[in-house]
Amino acid sequence: MKIPKTFFLLLIIPLFSFSAHKYYLSLTQIKFKPETKSIQIIINVFMDDIELALNKDYNIDLQLTTKKELPNNNVYFEKYLREKLQFTIDGTPKKFNYIGKEYENDLVYFYLEIENIATVKNIQITNKILTKHFPDQQNLIKTKVGKVDKSILLNKDETSGTLEH
Questions:
Q1: What's the domain range around 69?
Q2: Per-run averaged pLDDT (10 residues), the chain, 165 residues
Q3: Which of 17, 45, 135, 140 lies at a CB distance of 3.0 to 4.6 Å from 26, suitable for a disulfide?
């Protein structure tokens, strides 16, 4: 009877030492829409991560998806995104319009737009979303210009990249 218990413990204890690893990943999807001469951007991040970052950076208590959620939270989201994201289209820095956000399950989706873009040959992006608070954060950037898809993976050490189209 001792041997099976020992075997059981030797098998189970190592399994408990591997706790569930949390992934730190955001996805930024960038799509050029020639019919509207605009670039549409959708960013999704984990809700608890963005909430922690904003609460720490701005000394607030967002309490997302609760009755106590700050009514003016878009001000903080927009400020944060403007501090952490920069776009350069064909060598020209471009400002984005913050359209808004929505929650879905444990994600926050941010909607941005860059207007007055006639053509796109390359997109340079700097993305520092969540890298200050989460050293393992990775930010996946996917672009679509016409039928061409490109992607790049950024992190705290490499926060900028250029996608040629």
A1: 28-164
A2: 50 47 87 97 96 97 95 96 98 98 96 97 97 96 95 97 94
A3: 45
